[in-house]
Amino acid sequence: MDPRHEEELRKLLEIRAMYAARNGANQIASNPQQHRANPSNPDPMIYPGLYSPSGFDVLSILVRVQRRPNPQYHIGNIDSSIALVLCDRSLPDNPIVYCSEPFELLTGYTQKEIVGKNCRFLQHPYETVKAVGDANLDDSRASPSDPQHPSNDPNIHAKRTIKKAIELGLESQTTLINYRKNGEIFKNLLTTVPVDWTNNEGVEKHYIVGFQIMTAQNK
Q1: Are 82 and 211 within 8 A, CB to CB?
Q2: Of 22, 107, 123, 141, which residue is least crowded by CB atoms under 10 Å?
Q3: What is d(CA 80, CA 58) in angstroms, rounded to the nearest whole number?
Q4: Domain 3-218 belongs to what topology?
Q5: Integer CA distances (angstroms), 107 to 16, 25, 57, 74, 119, in order
Q6: How many CB atoms lie within 10 A of CB 152?
Q7: pTM for the whole thing?
Q8: What span, in angstroms and rounded, lies between the C-alpha atoms of 209 and 200?
Q9: If residue 12 lies in a helix (H) or strand (E), which one and from where to where?
Q10: Looking at residues 89-116, what average pLDDT do you find?
């Protein structure tokens, strides 16, 4: 993992631990019986007043998504129960810089295993097929009869849809065949929303928020 991402992850986990301890103490003090019956561990990055150690305010970004003009796809309520990732478009290969705890539960991977990677890592064994243009279909390193040949990638059309939307700064929604850490396959309805703005220092910010929903046939 890139050292920058390791430091971000370390601070992120520290903030989560502090918030969980404080939130848990408050809940127990206010209603100890209810806490014992319904323990909770909300994702602190979705709540006001808490910020990512890397300098972006996750809450602010999600508010921008919720209030975006002319949304192309309906996302519904954005809260701590939703599986999502935040990718930095200003960095090479659009690495994940934040993921919610429901995303960890959905995929079986931990924050440490996720941060710094491109979302393609969920597309094993086709995660190495990154440029979804027609040129990949002529890859001479593998025979078309090989199940892992790019032409046999079940996500090839979905990847093209996502790639084109990112290049044009548009939203996209498509279904991908993904793999959990334990190798289990699931169908993932992925909605991507670009978020761009200029901060108070005049620095342009470019992110992609990816919302993941396991489709009904997998439940």
Answers
A1: yes
A2: 141
A3: 12
A4: Beta-Lactamase (3.30.450)
A5: 19, 29, 24, 23, 11
A6: 14
A7: 0.67
A8: 21
A9: helix 3-30
A10: 93
